[in-house]
Amino acid sequence: MINQISESFHTSNNVDFIQDDDVTMQWLSEFDSSRFERFIVFIDSHVSSSWGETVLQQLEAHQKEIIIKEIEPFETSKTITFYPEVIGFLEDVGSTRFDLVIAIGGG
User: Fold this and answer.
1) CA separation for the pair 36, 23 (Å, rounded)
2) Residues 6+ apart with CB under 8 A from 67
3) What pLDDT, on a 0 to 100 scale, did the predictor assign at position 2?
4) Which of 16, 28, 64, 99 is surrounded by the fewest CB atoms within 10 Å?
5) Residues 6+ apart with CB under 8 A from 100
6) Which pTM value belongs to this model?
7) Predicted local confidence at residue 1, as pLDDT
């Protein structure tokens, strides 16, 4: 079962929070990705060791570039002080508004 909370802003941007208990994560291969050029995935390194390959396989169905950034699961990576590191990474990879940023965490 997938639980989803969506938030729309005054621009045409949305933020979706999704909780998925399907171990295949099939929805990742089925959503409409036509408006995105690339996927940038931030993933907790502990989660990546268990689920990273599944996430990657599902996203590959879209035939788009996938950039993965593993994040160490420390409390400091869960605070606003970590924000500059995230923005710096997005700048380093040349992120644009046509990229879909996906964050996958463990807690």
Assistant:
1) 25
2) 38, 39, 40, 41, 93
3) 61
4) 16
5) 33, 36, 38, 39, 40
6) 0.82
7) 57
